[in-house]
C-alpha cells in the first residue's frame, strides 16, 4: 500500500511538473509570438515610412523637373512669339524701323566713334538698303566708317567694331531681346518656384501624412487581431 501511495504521489508530482513545463512552454511561445509581432510591426512601420519618404522625395523631384520643363517651354514660346512679332512689325513698318536704326547709331556714337575707323555690321536686308545711301550714316561719324553685311544673321539693329582697339559692341535687336528675356525669365522662374512648386510640395506632404495615418490605423487593428 505504501508503494502504491508513493507511486501515486510521484505520478502527481510528474503531472504537476509537466503542467508547469507546458505552461512555461506556452508562456515562452506566446512571448516569442508577441516579440515577433512587435518586430514585424516595427519593421513594417519603418519600411512603409521609408517608402513614403522616398516616394515623397522622388515625386517632388519629378514634379520640379516637370515645372522646369514647363517653364522652359513657356520661355521658348514667349521668345519665339516676340521674335515673330518683331519681324512682322519691322516688315510692316520698315521705313519707321530705318529711322529707329539711324537714331540708334547716332545715340551710340559717343561710345563707338573712335579713330581710326569704325566698322558697322548690318543684317543683309538693312545692308542692301543702307548701302544705297551710306552717306546718311557716314555723316553721323567724325571718324571713317565702313558698313558691312554681317555673316551672322540677326533681326535688326547693328553691331560695331573698333578696329584698332579690338572692341565690339552689340546693339542688335536680338541682343536687346536677350537682355529683356533674362528679366522675364527671372520673373517667370520666381512665379513657378514660389507658387507651383510649393503648392505641389504641400499636396504631396498632405498625401504622405494621410498615408502614414492610414498605416497607424492599420497597425492598431493588427494589434487587436494579435
Walk me through what this model shows.
The protein has 226 residues and is an alpha+beta fold. It has a domain at 93-172: ATP synthase, E subunit, C-terminal (hypothetical protein PF0899 fold), CATH 3.30.2320. The protein is 77% helix and 11% strand. It is built from 5 helices and 4 strands, in the order H-H-E-H-H-E-E-E-H. It has helices at 2-92, 94-112, 124-131, 135-138, 173-225, and strands at residues 117-122, 144-149, 157-162, 167-172. Strands 2-1-3-4 form a 4-stranded mixed beta sheet. Helix 1 packs antiparallel against helix 5 (173-225). The longest helix is centred in the N-terminal third of the chain and has 91 residues, at 2-92.
Radius of gyration: 42 Å
What proportion strand? 5-15%
Strand order of the largest sheet: 2-1-3-4
**Do you know the CATH topology of the domain at 93-172?**
hypothetical protein PF0899 fold
Label the CATH architecture of the domain at 93-172.
2-Layer Sandwich
CATH class of the domain at 93-172: Alpha Beta
Order of helices and strands: HHEHHEEEH
- Tally of alpha and pi helices: 5
What features would you highlight for this structure?
four-stranded mixed beta sheet, alpha+beta, 5 helices, 226 residues, hypothetical protein PF0899 fold, 11% strand, 77% helix
Describe the structure concisely:
The protein is α+β, with helices and mostly antiparallel strands and 226 residues long.
Topology:
Elements: H1 2-92, H2 94-112, E1 117-122, H3 124-131, H4 135-138, E2 144-149, E3 157-162, E4 167-172, H5 173-225
Parallel strand pairs: 1-2
Antiparallel strand pairs: 1-3, 3-4
Helix pairs in contact: 1-2, 1-5
Amino acid at each position: 500500500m505504501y508503494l502504491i501511495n508513493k507511486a501515486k504521489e510521484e505520478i502527481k508530482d510528474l503531472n504537476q511538473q509537466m503542467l508547469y513545463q507546458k505552461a512555461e512552454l506556452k508562456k515562452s511561445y506566446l512571448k516569442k509570438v508577441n516579440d515577433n509581432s512587435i518586430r514585424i510591426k516595427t519593421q513594417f512601420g519603418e519600411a512603409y515610412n521609408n517608402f513614403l519618404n522616398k516616394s515623397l522625395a522622388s515625386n517632388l523631384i519629378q514634379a520640379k523637373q516637370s515645372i522646369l520643363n514647363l517653364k522652359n517651354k513657356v520661355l521658348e514660346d514667349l521668345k519665339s512669339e516676340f521674335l515673330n512679332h518683331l519681324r512682322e512689325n519691322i516688315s510692316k513698318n520698315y521705313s519707321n524701323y530705318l529711322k529707329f536704326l539711324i537714331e540708334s547709331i547716332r545715340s551710340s556714337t559717343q561710345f563707338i566713334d573712335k579713330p581710326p575707323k569704325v566698322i558697322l555690321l548690318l543684317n543683309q536686308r538693312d545692308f542692301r538698303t543702307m548701302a544705297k545711301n551710306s552717306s546718311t550714316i557716314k555723316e553721323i561719324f567724325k571718324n571713317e566708317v565702313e558698313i558691312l553685311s554681317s555673316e551672322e544673321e540677326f533681326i535688326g539693329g547693328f553691331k560695331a567694331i573698333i578696329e584698332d582697339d579690338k572692341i565690339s559692341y552689340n546693339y542688335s535687336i536680338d541682343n536687346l531681346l536677350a537682355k529683356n528675356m533674362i528679366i522675364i525669365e527671372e520673373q517667370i522662374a520666381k512665379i513657378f518656384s514660389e507658387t507651383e512648386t510649393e503648392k505641389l510640395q504641400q499636396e504631396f506632404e498632405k498625401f504622405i501624412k494621410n498615408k502614414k495615418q492610414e498605416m497607424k490605423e492599420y497597425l492598431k487593428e493588427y494589434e487587436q487581431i494579435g
